[in-house]
Every structure is written in structure tokens, then in C-alpha cells.
Write a structure and sequence with these properties.
With 95 residues, this protein is of the alpha+beta class. The protein has helices at residues 6-16, 57-69, 74-81, and strands spanning 23-31, 37-45.
Length: 95
């Protein structure tokens, strides 16, 4: 969990595609290590028609590293590598 300012939350919304409808920001409850409920914000992907939004290359690279690290089948790793990521990795602007 992280504490973020309203400004940074807006930047995260933009980075995750909330304005374009790729994700919504939702409040959920998680539990800390003492089992105390803590309200947090998370992003939830919205159902889309195939091809409308492409995954960030950063996400796919993370999946590939995880699949390789955990020894998942080579065919699966190759299927991840085949996912098209037409948009280059984006970093939040410093505005």
C-alpha cells in the first residue's frame, strides 16, 4: 500500500487509462498483517472489445519474467512474447 497525493492519483488515473475507459478506480477493503480492515484504491479493467486497448509493454515484460522465473511452460512464455504492444511504454508526465 502507498499513500499518494490527489495530484499523483490523477497522474495514475491518466497512466492507467481511466479517462479513456480502459480502467476504473474503485475503493476496496484489504486487511493488514493484524487483520485490521483498510480501505484502499485499486484499478479494475473494464470489459472491452478485442483490440481496443493494448497492454503496456512493461506489463507484458513483467508477465514474461514471472512466467520464466516460475518455470511455466515454454509455449506459454512464447505466447506472452507474441502479444502485440503497439503503444510504447508510457511514464506519467511531470505535469
Amino acid at each position: 500500500m502507498f499513500a499518494v497525493s490527489d495530484r499523483d492519483l490523477q497522474r495514475l488515473d491518466n497512466y492507467e487509462g481511466v479517462p479513456g475507459g480502459a480502467y476504473t478506480r474503485e475503493e476496496i477493503v484489504v486487511y493488514d498483517n493484524r487483520e485490521k480492515p483498510v480501505p484502499v484504491l485499486t484499478y479494475i479493467a473494464t470489459p472491452q472489445k478485442p483490440g481496443k486497448f493494448a497492454p503496456h509493454k512493461d506489463y507484458i515484460d513483467l508477465y514474461i519474467r514471472g512466467a520464466t522465473y516460475f518455470g511455466l511452460p515454454a509455449e506459454y512464455v512464447e505466447s506472452l512474447k507474441a502479444i502485440e504492444t503497439p503503444r510504447a511504454s508510457r511514464r506519467p508526465s511531470k505535469s
